[in-house]
Amino acid sequence: LPISPTLETYHACRERLLNGTTAFTVLGQPGIDCRGSLRVIRQYLKQEYPHLTIFEHTVSRFRSSKPYVVLSSLLNSIKHGVTGGSPEAQMARLVNMQEERALISGFPRSVWILHNAELIGVQTCQIMLDMRDRLALKGIRLFLVNGAFVEPFMTQIASFSPELSASEIQTVFGSIHPLRGLSGLQEYAGVLT
Question: Which of 41, 84, 87, 149 has an alpha carbon within 20 to 30 A of 47's alpha carbon?
Fold first, then answer.
């Protein structure tokens, strides 16, 4: 039976989450709603795994890539009251909040859904790698779900190679899933019903 592209994307993401992959990236084209797919992924994950800790962050093209700015923005996304301080203190708060939520939930995973991943720079990747390592020391596994437009994403990834290894890039972006549009009357009808 054919399923909608968004549901197909959710199932692929869920499979990666359960199989221990570190990340999953949804790549879309202009006109195909990548942001909507990420919302559906979040909704289904919360429905299927109500105790799973999920955070959502939108990468802005207008923010600086300095570590304290990136960390402050991530702290804002998790609604932490204190976003300033040194990058070390900011990272400690970010990790501690995730650890606290994972302990409360009883589910040792932390999921971040990142919108506009084509805007992620090297510094943000390094912060995510550091956060993953710190969470792992506390027994918590980080899983990143990225959403991006194909062409700018591929251009951005190509620029990482001198500063990030292939395995580090793989850790942050994981497996790639191209989002497809609806095809045929049967799929359109299925989505509308």
Answer: 149
DSSP string, 42-93: HHHHHHH-TT-EEEEEE--TTS--SHHHHHHHHHHHTT-S---S-HHHHHHH
Cα angle 51, 20, 54 (rounded to 5 degrees) comes to: 30
What is the residue whose two structure tokens read 């692929």? 12
Residues of the chain with pLDDT > 90: what percent?
Answer: 76
pTM of structure: 0.89
3-class DSSP state for residue 113?
strand
Question: For 112-134, what is each residue's pLDDT tens digit?
Answer: 999 999 999 999 999 999 999 99
Conformation bin of residue 11: beta by default, left when phi > 0, alpha when psi is -120 to 50: alpha
Asked if residue 58 lies in contact with residue 115, where contact means CB atoms within 8 angstroms, the answer is yes
